[in-house]
Amino acid sequence: MSVQLKLTDVQVNIAQEQGVRTLLDDVNLVLNQGDFVTVLGTNGAGKSTLFNAIAGTLPITAGQIEIAGHDVTKLNPEKRAKYIARVSRIPS
After folding, report:
1. Cβ proximity of 8 and 24 under 8 Å
2. What are the chain's domains?
3. Among residues of the chain, what percentage have pLDDT more than 90?
């Protein structure tokens, strides 16, 4: 099976008035073709942050993101769209 998504030591920090806040810290993930994954967590657990980092709408501070063998770490969301699509749930 081929690796479709790989996160290596991904970190996301944001600046706040009180200093820097770490939202994701050294996240490592490998998803192979055919894998089925469910991401669960309470509000504020980092689910949306993780998906925003993968999609490129939230820049990562450190680490690397590969999609289908392509390093997309520094690509903007528009260029990542060649490798990934995202559908958001719209609350009713």
Report:
1. no
2. 3-80 (3.40.50.300)
3. 85
- Position 92 scores a pLDDT of 63
Look-up: residue for tokens 């993968």? 54
Report helix, strand and coil shares of the chain as percent, to nearest 5. Answer: 15, 40, 45
Dihedral pair phi/psi, residue 67, rounded to 5°:
-125, 120
For residue 76, the number of C-alpha atoms closer than 13 Å in the C-beta half-sphere is 1
What average pLDDT does the segment 29-34 reach?
Answer: 95
The token pair that represents 44 in the structure block: 């504020």
Residues 27/51, Cβ–Cβ less than 8 Å: no
Secondary structure class of 92 (helix, strand, coil): coil
Q: How many CB atoms sit inside 10 A of residue 67's CB?
A: 20
Decide if pLDDT at 90 tops 90.
no
